[in-house]
Structures are given as structure tokens and as C-alpha cells.
Amino acid sequence: MKKFLLNFGLLRIICALSVLGIHITARYMNHEFTYIINQFFRYCVPIFIIMSGYFLHYTDTKDKINSTLLNFYIQHLKKIIIPYVIWLAIYVIYNNRHHLSTLLTLDYMNIILTGYNHLYFLVIIIQLYIIYPLLKRLFDYRKGIPTLIVSGIISLYFQGGTFLYKLGISILPYNLIKYNYILLPTWLFYFVFGIYFASHKSKLLNIKSSYILFGWLVSFAILITDSKLTNTYMYSVKPTVMLYSMTSFYLLYGCFSKLELESKSKRIHLLSNLSFDFYLSHMLIISLVTSYTKIIGFTSLYNGFLGMVLLFIVTAIATYYFCQLMAIIRTFLNRNKTKKIRLSNPIDEDRLKVS
């Protein structure tokens, strides 16, 4: 089990770096090789959602305490909603820092419901967490396979709707197309697959490595060709991305399973624990890094392909240390909170010592 968890730890790290890769390469799409790299990273958000479904179901089934539905929502949603609100405020203020007067005219209801920049991911996760108790009940009644099939059909329809709309074919109303990137049905299959994977891992991994590699190569070729021919290279919501993301999940998980990771477990867990903060903060760090470079006079430092690679490395390192700082601050605040609780409950503290 330890090795299995390390596999997911590595997946979280790789996906966090891949999100950064998408946003960095998107600035350099005039280079052919950069285009291929950008498409290569398209698995990151789907795999993040797969892991969300997996870990939620895994921890839920291992937890021996029977909590109420309200306690479930309080326990899990607060871990998403609180960071979402905080980072939403940070990005809104930062992106309007030169025109603070516009803060009074923004449509905050729309911002909260749709996310801001890359924060749409948290809007998706909130929706998926809300319906998880229903999905769990279906799995408890041994309806896992039908649920997986139905979720696949639903997600394929919604993702296909966005893709076909780009080609001039409408199978979904425009309002659904407009907000398809944050709607629960669009991402439902990945989440349900994560739940299914948590309880049927051995069956789902019973595929030859050569078949997985071949499937991944074919799916990647299809994705690149599709993106080029239909001019949908900026989309992460389309059927070819679904296919590519699933083969990428199997490929990456299979590769990590063959690595001897035990000696690196502590480091992997550290980096894995930073992946959520990395995702939330990396867009801010990209902006700060590029702005600071221009201020000190290196206006062409990040030009060209080598400049893109340098920007990725610098941003990754800067974001890592920023996340380390956030972890230190969070630890300090939690420590002070614990001290206050102990001081306010001296009788309970004495009882603990006696017991």
C-alpha cells in the first residue's frame, strides 16, 4: 500500500508541473515543438480529477467513523471552499491592481460561480464532492459498472458538444457550451473512474504494458492531429483529450509502479503535499516572475524556445519556495490555534495528561 500511495504522490507532482507547463507553453504556440509539448500536458486536469475521486472514496471507506451527510460536507468542502475564496480574492485584487476602482464594478456573483483564471478547477471539485454521497450509494449497491458507463456517456456527450460547436455543429444549447468547462457532467466520468479505480485497482491494472504504451502513442497522435486540423489545441474539453488522458493515467501509473520509490518516500510526500498550493499559486508566480524580469531590464530573457524552458524552470522553483513559505505560515497558525484551544480548555488538558 505504501508503494501504491507513492505512485499517486508522483502523479500529483507531475500533474502540478504539467499545469504549469500548459500555461507556460500557451505563450509560445508559434513554435511547432511547443505546440506538441502543450498537447502532451493536456492530461493534467483530468488526472487530477481522477485522483480526487480515488482519494475521496479511499479515505471514506477506510474511515471507521459513521458521519452524517452534513459532517461529510463540512469536513471535505471546507478544504476546497476556503482556499477557493482566499485565492479568488487574491487574483481579483492582483489582476485589477492598476485599476482598483474597477473592483466595485465587477460581477462577483459570476466570478464566484465560474472561477477566475485556473480556479475553475475548484468549482468543478466542489460540484463533484456534493454529489459524491449519491455516487457512493450507487457503488455500495454494486452499481459501479453501470455508473461508470453512464458517466462516460454523459461526459462524452458534453465534451463532444463543445468540440462540435467549434466545428459549427450544435448538440447543446449555447449557455451550456459557454460554461461547459465548469459543469459537473463534463468531468463526471473522470471522477467516477477514480472511485471505481479505488475499489477495482487490480482488475483495471491487468493490462500488458506494451498495450498501454501502444494505446498511449495512438491516442497522443490522434490528439495532436485533431487539435491541428480542427484548431482546438487550446481545449482540454473534447473526446480526444478524454482518450488521451485515460491512456496517460495508465501509462504514468504503470511507469511509477516499476520504480523503487521507498527510499524517496519522504521527499515525494513533501512535494505531493505542496501540489495543491502549487496549482493555486503558479499563475500568480508566472506574472510576478515575468513582471520583475522586465522591471530589471531583461525584456528579452524569456524569448524563444530556450526562454520558454528558462521561464518554466524559474517559475517552478519560485512557486516551490512560495509553497514552502505558505506551509510554514500554515503550520505556525495551526500551532497557535492549538495553543489557544489548550489554554481555553485547561480542564480537558489535565484530563488528557491523566489518561
Q: What topology emerges from the helices and strands here?
A:
Blueprint: H1 2-25, H2 32-40, H3 44-62, H4 69-95, H5 108-114, H6 120-140, H7 144-166, H8 174-178, H9 184-199, H10 201-204, H11 209-230, H12 239-257, H13 265-295, H14 304-344, H15 346-354
Protein name: Acyltransferase
Organism: Vallitalea guaymasensis
Keywords: Acyltransferase, Cell membrane, Membrane, Transferase, Transmembrane, Transmembrane helix
What does this structure look like?
The chain crosses the membrane at residues 40-59, 80-97, 117-135, 147-167, 179-199, 211-229, 241-259, 279-302, 308-333. It is found in: Cell membrane. This protein has 355 residues and is an all-alpha fold. It has 2 domains: 31-259, no CATH class; 261-355, no CATH class. The chain has 15 helices and no strands. It has helices spanning 2-25, 32-40, 44-62, 69-95, 108-114, 120-140, 144-166, 174-178, 184-199, 201-204, 209-230, 239-257, 265-295, 304-344, 346-354. Helix 1 packs across helix 14 and helix 13 crosses helix 14. The longest helix has 41 residues, at 304-344. It is globular. Mean pLDDT is 89; it is low at 349-355.
